[in-house]
Amino acid sequence: MSEILVVGSVAYDSITTPSGYAEFTLGGSANYFSVAASLYSHVNVVGVVGEDYKDEDLQLLKSRDVSLEGLQQVAGKTFHWEGRYEGDMNDAITLETQLNVFEKFNPVIPDSYKKSPYVFLANIDPELQAEVLDQMEEPKLVGLDTMNFWIDSKIDSLKAILARVDVLLINEGEARKLADTHNTIQAVARLGHMGPKAVVVKRGEYGFVLYTDEKFFILPAFPVRQVIDPTGAGDTFAGGFFGYLSKMNGSWSVDDLKRACIQGVLLASYTVEDFGLGRLRQLDWAKVEKRFEEYMQVISYPHL
C-alpha cells in the first residue's frame, strides 16, 4: 500500500466568520491534509502537540488509519491560531498566533516513515523542510507549501528547497509575491522555472491553476452555496491531490495531475462548509464520488 508522509502543524484554531465563531476548534495543516489524504492511502504524520491536546482528537486520526508514531507530545500548549474572515473570505486576518510547542518543533522522521514514497512538506520553515527531505530515502513524489512569512524572511532557503521538490502547491497571493508579479499566469510560469515539475496555485472560490510541461490547466471551484469557514481548504486540497496520486502508484502524467487537482477541489469544497474539520470528520468515499458526478456537470460542455 502507498504511504504518504506529511510534516506540518497540528493546532487549535479560534475562527470568526460572517457565519459565527468557533473557539479552539481542531486545525493545523497536518490535520487537514491527513484526514483528507487518508481517504485514499495510509498517512504518516509528523508534528508536535502539547499536553492540552485532546485524546478524542488523536482518536480522529487513528480512526482514519493515520500513523501517529511521528507525532510528538511535549510539555506546554498546542499551537494556537486565531483569525477572522470578512467580505469574500478569500484572505484571513490573523488576530493572534501562539506558537507554543510549535516554536521549537524539530521534525524527526521515524525509521518506519523514511521510505514513504510520497512526501508533503506543509507550511513550515523551509530550513526544516530541507531537513525533512534529507532524512527521506528516495521518495517518488515530493510536494511543498509555503507562506508569505517565509517568502519575506527566508527567501534563499525557500528557493533552495524549491529546486528539490516535484510539486509546489501555493495560494494565489503567495504565488504572486514569490514570483514578484501581480499577474497570476505570469507568476505560475515563473515558479515553474524555479525547480518544481508542476505548480498548483490554489485560488479559493475561483478554483486552481495547474502548470506543468509548459502548459496550463484551469478549472473553477465546486460551487458551494454557503461558505462557513475557508480555513484549511488549501491543505485539504493538497490531501486530495496527493491522495489521488498515491493511488496511481507512481504514475503522475499530465492527465494524472489534472485529475488530482479535481480531487483536491472536491475535498476542499467539503472543508469550507463547516468550521474546522467538522465536515471532513464525516466524509466518506461515497460522498466524494457523488460530488465528483455533480462537478462533472458543472465543468461539462457540448462538443463544438
Listing every helix as H and every strand as E from the N terminus to the C terminus, the arrangement reads EEEHEHEEEEHEHHEHHEEEHHHH
Q: How would you classify the helix and strand content by structural class?
A: alpha/beta
State the distance separating the first and last CA atoms: 42 Å
CATH topology: UDP-N-acetylmuramoyl-L-alanine:D-glutamate ligase
Strand content: 25-35%
Low-confidence stretches: none
Mean pLDDT: 95
CATH class value: Alpha Beta
Rg, alpha carbons: 18 Å
Strand order of the largest sheet: 5-4-1-8-9-10-11-12-13
By CATH, the architecture is named: 3-Layer(aba) Sandwich
Count of strand segments: 13
Q: What's the CATH superfamily, by name?
A: Ribokinase
Explain what you see:
The chain has one domain (3-299): Ribokinase (UDP-N-acetylmuramoyl-L-alanine:D-glutamate ligase, 3-Layer(aba) Sandwich), CATH 3.40.1190. Helix content is 37%, strand content 26%. It is built from 11 helices and 13 strands. The strands form 2 sheets. It has a 9-stranded mixed sheet, sandwiched between helices. A 4-stranded mixed sheet has the order 3-2-6-7. Strand 11 and strand 12 (208-212) form a beta hairpin. Helix 1 (29-37) packs parallel to helix 8 and helix 3 runs parallel beside helix 5. The longest helix has 18 residues, at 254-271.
